[in-house]
Amino acid sequence: MTADQQPNPSRPPGGEAPATPPPSSVPVGQPGTPLPGAVPPWQPPAYQQAPPPPGPHVPPPAAPPFPHQGPLAWPPAPPAKPRNATGVAALLLAVVAACFCWTYYLSPLALVLGAFAIGCGLIGSGRAKRGAATNRQVALGGMWIGAGAAVVAAVLTVVLIVEESRITTVETSAGSDYLAEPGDDVTYTDGLVVHASQVQAGDGLTAVITLTLTNETGGEISLADDAMRVFDEGRRLPPENVRRADGAPGEVADGASVDVSYVVVVDPGLGGLTIDYRPDDDHDWAYWWLSLPGQREFDREPSDGGEGNNDDGEPPGASLDV
Questions:
Q1: Domain holding 201: CATH number?
Q2: Could you tell me if residue 92 is inside a domain?
């Protein structure tokens, strides 16, 4: 120690410095390092800091949009075809009705077709107004033509019904449902009875058909408009080959019977004839099958003893317009 140094008060005067204690057998670690076998000191548990209160809800970010915004773009539907069939049908029906409306017996059919034409025209015109059809003029034309045809057909139909309602029909099956034969009585609903006799041979190639009419109707019947149609194996004979015999009565009184004869020019070799007869326009047609006599009965009988000649010396049938 020098003169300038102060003495250590804790050191005995004149003594030597204390000896350095021997190192301990227990190793001394770094500060804060527990010794082996030592119990670590108690430490208070560490508390985590409370999380901050939740803020307002923030929605997640939206997904990126698809390349096409809005609904998917489908290809446009093909345009609907115009429904013009009804208008065309109206015109076709109207044309057919216009053709038939002038006929007497087909006027009821024309009336029905005209009514259908009017209905189809109305439907077709309505579709055209809604844009479903494009032929409004065709539909209207069919409607008006059908209306005109229906009016004409309605008038003729009424006339037909009135005329047919006054026709006196045949009430017996013979002469209506099947062909009557000689000896069958054909009776009308008003009481008129028609009876056909066997065909008689006339002069040359002619046959005489005689009908007996018995009037039980309660009134007189005029025979001025009676008519007969004659058929040869389905072929109608010309009207000039069928004529009323001379001297035939023109009427039949109530309760009386008269004979009406017709002279018919026939072809040789025929087996029979089919005849239709009506007494007047107010009676319906009646039908008969009449067999013909043998062919030799149609040969003209000689008047002077000569065979096959007539009074004028001409061959049979030469005076007939056949």
A1: 2.60.40.10
A2: yes
Instruction: List, in sequence order, the alpha helices (H) in 131-220.
Output: 136-165
- pLDDT value for 276: 93
Q: Positive or negative CA dihedral for 196, 198, 200, 206?
A: positive
Which candidate, 237, 241, 230, places its Cα nearest to that of 196?
A: 230
Say if 34 falls within a structural domain: no
Length of the chain: 322
pLDDT of 71: 60
Neighbours of 260 (CB within 10 A): 21
74: in domain: no
277 versus 317: the higher-pLDDT residue is: 277
pLDDT at 114 (0 to 100)? 95
Asked whether residue 190 falls in the same domain as residue 94, the answer is no
The domain in which residue 252 lies consists of 185-298
Res 15 pLDDT > 90 = no
- Residue 192 sits in the same domain as residue 155: no
Dihedral angle at the C-alpha atoms of 169, 173, 178, 183, nearest 10 degrees? Answer: -100
Residue 100 is assigned to a structural domain of this protein: yes
Domains held by the chain: number: 2
Of the candidates 175, 209, 208, 207, the residue with the CA atom closest to the CA atom of residue 189: 175
- Which of the four pLDDT bands, split at 50, 70 and 90, describes residue 137? very high
Do 194 and 290 have their domain in common?
Answer: yes
**Is 190 found in the same domain as 161?**
no
Which tokens in the block code for residue 268? 């040789």
Distance CA 211, CA 274 (A): 14
Give whole-number Cα distances, 203 to 24, 33, 165, 225, in Å. 186, 171, 42, 26
Asked if 157 and 122 sit in the same domain, the reply is yes
Whole-number Cα distances in Å, 112 to 100, 118, 155: 11, 10, 13
Most confident of 150-154, 235-239, 244-248: 150-154
